[in-house]
Amino acid sequence: MGRPQLTLRIGHGYDVHAFVEGRRLVLGGVEVPSERGLLGHSDADVLAHALMDAMLGAMRGGDIGQLFPDNDPAYKDADSMVLLSRVAALAREQGYRILDCDCTVGAQSPRLSPYRESMRMRMAEAMGVGVECVGVKATTTEGLGFVGREEGICAWAVCLLEQE
Q: 152: part of which helix (H) or strand (E)?
């Protein structure tokens, strides 16, 4: 009876950004060599955005559009690792501990496997957790849909939080 009740919460996030000329491609806080980047108000890090939405979902805290509105000049070209750090700090302020996160990037190109470990490390560092708590993988869509036509990149993420 004297033992505190543990509450586990899971959140899911999804994000999409279109390719655009003249921008750098940032995924999971890592600049990936590419002829095109992603269109967005911030740095358009689709992977970090999906992860932030997953964490906010687990906290029942809305989404990144509410927290970091795309019509606010303060977030123009914002570093998504800074924003991810702020979401993780918000989770801690609300009494949550980040237990585990897993992410998938949907991209026909460029090839992302050489950058996977760097992405894991950058996002773990931003959240203040060990790299073992962050999974990242990439997949193509076998040429199907907007990803297959190389019109953009999408990402999915789940995040498991614990609250006492």
A: strand 152-163
Contact in structure between 152 and 146 (CB atoms under 8 Å): yes
The β-bridge relationship of strands 96-106 and 134-139 is: parallel
Q: Which two tokens stand for residue 57?
A: 């979902």
CB count in 10 Å sphere of residue 79: 16
- Orientation angle between helical segments 116-127 and 46-59, nearest 10 degrees: 40
- Per-residue confidence at 6, pLDDT binned at 50, 70, 90? confident
What is the average per-residue pLDDT within 119-130?
98
Among 72, 76, 74, 98, smallest CA distance to 85 is for: 98
* DSSP H helices in 10-137: 46-59, 64-67, 80-93, 116-127
Confidence of residue 84 (pLDDT cuts 50, 70, 90): very high
The letter for the amino acid at 84 is L
What is the number of other CB atoms lying within 10 angstroms of the CB of residue 73? 8
Give residue 147's identity as a one-letter amino acid code: V
pLDDT band at 22 (very low <50, low <70, confident <90, very high): very high
